[in-house]
Amino acid sequence: MKLMVLMVPLILVSGFVVIFGLRSTTTSSWDFIARQPAWLWWGHGNSSLNGASSVTVHAKESDESPPLINGFSPPPQAVEALPFEEPNVLKQDVSETSGPIAAPANEALDLARKTRHKTEHTSLEKLEAGLQKARVALKEAKNGKQADDPDYAPAGPMYWNAEVFHRSYLEMEKQFKVFVYGEGEPPVFHNGPCRSIYSMEGNFIHRMEIDGHFRTKDPDKAHVYFLPFSVAMMVRFVYERESRDFGPIRRTVSDYINLISGKYPFWNRSLGADHFMLACHDWGPEASFSVPHLGKISIRALCNANTSEKFNPIKDVSLPEINLRTGSIKGFVGGLSPSKRSILAFFAGRLHGPIRPVVLEHWENKDDDIKVHQQLPKGVSYYEMMRGSKFCLCPSGYEVASPRIVEALYAGCVPVLISDHYVPPFSDVLNWKSFSVEVPVSDIPSLKKILTSISPRQYIRMQRRVLQVRRHFEVNSPPKRFDVFHMILHSIWLRRLNVGIHDDQLAITS
Hints:
The protein is of the alpha/beta class. The chain has helices at residues 2-34, 102-119, 123-141, 162-175, 199-210, 231-237, 247-263, 266-270, 284-288, 292-296, 356-363, 382-387, 404-410, 447-452, 456-469, 484-497, 506-509, and strands at 39-42, 178-180, 224-226, 275-279, 299-302, 317-318, 343-348, 370-373, 389-395, 414-418, 437-439, 499-502. The chain is built from 17 helices and 12 strands. Strand 9, helix 13 and strand 10 (414-418) form a beta-alpha-beta unit. One of its GO terms (cellular component) is Golgi membrane.
């Protein structure tokens, strides 16, 4: 009896501890899982290809930028897209916990999974399997033989890894599919300027709409989903210029996302991680943050690729800014041979932004070798000056991008990038330091010293590389392999390779 008197209180205390412990575990485990509508892994490879970093993004955390375990990696490694591995964060089976919601939900989910896997794989699983094969192919290409290509085989120091880029491009041609949402009325949607400094918006939208190779009409077969709105057209038709109110543009973007997310399951499935927008207007980044997931999780193809304004080179794409004055590049491509280029450096442009006044202050009418003008003398051709110059100065304006970069490439002139926080176009593939000169704003007074320190032999090498990479910036109608249209698609393809999306968790959150 004495023993029983001692044991009963001990048993009761132990019971209370177990019950409350399980209840606490159930609450935290279920709450942790229920908050995540999908699996999202940002895996970004290192230069040695010895594994991939992965991280799970939860719905609770989705209003913040997706974290990266190893921090920021330079754009060159983005082309070395790696297989991602399932994280160990949610290995615990929900059925091991108790509670009125968790156990039944998990049993139903397990049954659905088993039934589904016995019969067929979902379309998303098939897409992910294809992407996984592409990741393996890129890893093998790093140390393997370059694939045969009768049209063009990338080679040379202009590429971070020509073999990997080539294999990636071929994989893109073989399987990449884009779904273009059909909702929205022109001119704001499915339309854009094609003869202006924002021409890449209209050109890409038009080409994507009529494309017969990469575009799919079946959204279940798409790797990415294109949001076909033009920020430039919003500024023209939605924004009230005198009001200085950005609200109408924000509401237009927000209403569109609400429309397609309510009509289709794809946005909610990935929180927009496999969706992309494209904008060359300066306000493109601002428009993207009308919807937090669009700005911080989706792929943004932007001319204004400014890292100080939340441009993320790992998930975002830097577009070349191309001013198609006539809608075509005919007559703008070509220039003199290096030996006939008598001008060391050239720039002509208005006082636009904080950098150009510094260039003009130090070099306008100060040196015969460096031709810097706010306005060209009458009868002097801007393009002829570029064609006869060794180096073309490309200072940023109010925003980091400048159409002079592509104009210089067209003219066979080595571009001199003068900017801060700018990510040059396609720098995940292209090694810009091999065919351009990057000058910090603080070194503008030393421009001539920097340029004359480049030996004639090195300059000739750089100029030849300019001619080789020029094909990647040419606008063709219809598009040609490896041209700017395909390079934009390839950059989006790379970002999609860095993301794994799985729909199993949707059953839990429904």
